[in-house]
């Protein structure tokens, strides 16, 4: 149906080669065959290309037919579906956890930005929502005290 669009993009050499191949394959209609034979009579280069193609086809037909060395189909037992590893089974869990953490991060960010000076009054709420943060704060305070005591012991602090 849209062969005319395809023909618009082809070069004259491509069209000539396609007509030559169709003539050799006897794929032309009687009218197209007659027009091509008229072109053959007028164009010596086209006739030389036709003879060259006939020689190539005859040479190919004279070659011995060889069997394939083996069957190239794959054995389904050896090359079936790969066994899923444990990394693939944890992927949905990790993906869901990442989404939950991202949502919580956005909520905390909105809370911090909207709270302003009232943030100190929200610390007990944050401790109940995120007990790890309060544990982190305790560990941080413990580290600071130990660091201060070690500096005091060495005499570095007055």
Explain what you see.
The protein is mainly alpha-helical and 158 residues long. It folds into 2 domains: 9-62, no CATH class; 90-154, no CATH class. The chain is 72% helix and 0% strand. It is built from 7 helices and no strands. The protein has helices at residues 3-9, 12-24, 30-42, 44-62, 86-115, 123-129, 131-154. Helix 6 packs across helix 7. The longest helix has 30 residues, at 86-115. It is elongated, with a radius of gyration of 41 Å. The termini are far apart. The model has no long low-confidence stretch (mean pLDDT 76).
What is the first-to-last residue Cα distance? 95 Å
pLDDT below 50 for ≥5 consecutive residues: which ranges? none
The residue-averaged pLDDT reads: 76
Number of separate helices: 7
Question: What fraction of residues sit in β-strands?
Answer: under 5%
- Gyration radius (Cα, Å) is 41 Å
Q: What is the total tally of β strands?
A: 0
- Helix coverage percent of residues? over 70%
Shape: elongated
Please indicate the count of domains.
2
Helix/strand-derived category reads mainly alpha
Spell the H/E element sequence.
HHHHHHH
The description of the largest β-sheet is: none
Features of the shown structure:
158 residues, mainly alpha, 72% helix
Question: Quick recap of the structure?
Answer:
It is built from seven helices and no strands. It is mostly helical and 158 residues long.
Topology:
Blueprint lengths: L2 H7 L2 H13 L5 H13 L1 H19 L23 H30 L7 H7 L1 H24 L4
Helix pairs in contact: 2-4, 6-7
């Amino acid at each position: 149906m849209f062969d005319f669009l395809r023909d618009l993009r082809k070069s004259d050499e491509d069209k000539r080669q396609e007509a030559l191949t169709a003539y050799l394959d006897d794929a032309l209609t009687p009218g197209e065959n007659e027009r091509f034979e008229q072109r053959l009579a007028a164009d010596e280069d086209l006739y030389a290309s036709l003879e060259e193609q006939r020689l190539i086809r005859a040479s190919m037909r004279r070659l011995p037919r060889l069997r394939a060395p083996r069957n190239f189909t794959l054995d389904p037992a050896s090359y079936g579906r790969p066994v899923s590893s444990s990394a693939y089974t944890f992927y949905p869990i990790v993906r869901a956890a990442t989404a939950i953490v991202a949502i919580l991060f956005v909520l905390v960010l909105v809370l911090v930005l909207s709270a302003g000076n009232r943030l100190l009054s929200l610390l007990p709420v944050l401790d109940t929502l995120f007990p790890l943060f309060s544990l982190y704060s305790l560990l941080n305070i413990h580290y600071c005290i130990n660091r201060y005591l070690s500096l005091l012991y060495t005499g570095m602090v007055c």
